[in-house]
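Sequence only, no structure available. Ideas?
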Amino acid sequence: MDKKTNYLKIYRHEVKYYISKKDAYELSLILSYCMKKDLNSKKNGDYYIRSLYFDTFNNIDYYEKQIGTASRKKVRLRLYDTTSPSVKLEIKNKFGSYMQKETCLITRNDAAKLINGHTSILLKYNSTTVIKVLYLFQKALYKPVITIDYDREAFMLNFENIRITIDKNIRASCNNYDIFNENIIMNPLINVNTHILEVKFNNTLPNFIQKILSKYTLQRESISKYCIARKTNKK
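Reply:
I predicted one. C-alpha cells follow.
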C-alpha cells in the first residue's frame, strides 16, 4: 500500500447520540480529565470540518441509508481548512454499527477538477482508494450533492483506539460545492442547542467511559449528517 493511502484496517464500532448543549459542555469537562484532545484542536478546543458528499444520479447511497441497508457507503471530500493545499478523498464503509474509512490525500487543484466532473485527474494517484472511487464514479455516475460544515470537539484514548466526538453548529448547502469558499451560505441542520455525540472504538468500551456516559440520558440513534442535510436542503 502506498504512503498516500490510509486504511482503518478493521471495522470499528461507531455509536451516535443526540446530546443537549448543556450536557455536552459538562461531558467535555469530564472527558478532558481522562482523555487527550485531538491534535487538530484549536485554542477553543474545537476544530472545523467541511465535507462534500457525492452520490449517484438516482441517489443510491442516500436511499440505502434511508431503508437501512446493512452494508453501505458514502464518498466524500473532506478538509479542515479552506486554504489547505490538500484534501482527503474518502470512502466511508458501514456495516450495521461498524465502520471503516479508506482515505487518500489529493491536491487542492485535483479536488476542484473532480468536483467539476473531471475524474481522469485521479489516474495519476497510486492508491487503492482512488481506484475504488474511479470505479464508482464511472459505473454509477457520481456527482457532488451536498456540502456540510460543522465544528468538532474530539477526545482520544489509545486503548481500543477510542475516539469520542461532539459535533456542533452543523450546517449545509445543497447548491454550492466550492469547498474552498469560506463564505458559502449554509442552512442549519439541527437546533443550535443540540449536538451530536459519536463514540468510536475497536472492540470494547472501558467501564469508566461507560459509567461517564451513563450520567446522561442518551438514546442510541441512527444519525447521518448526510441524510439530514439531503432532507433539509431539498431543492
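The two ends are 41 Å apart (CA to CA).
Hope that gets you unstuck.
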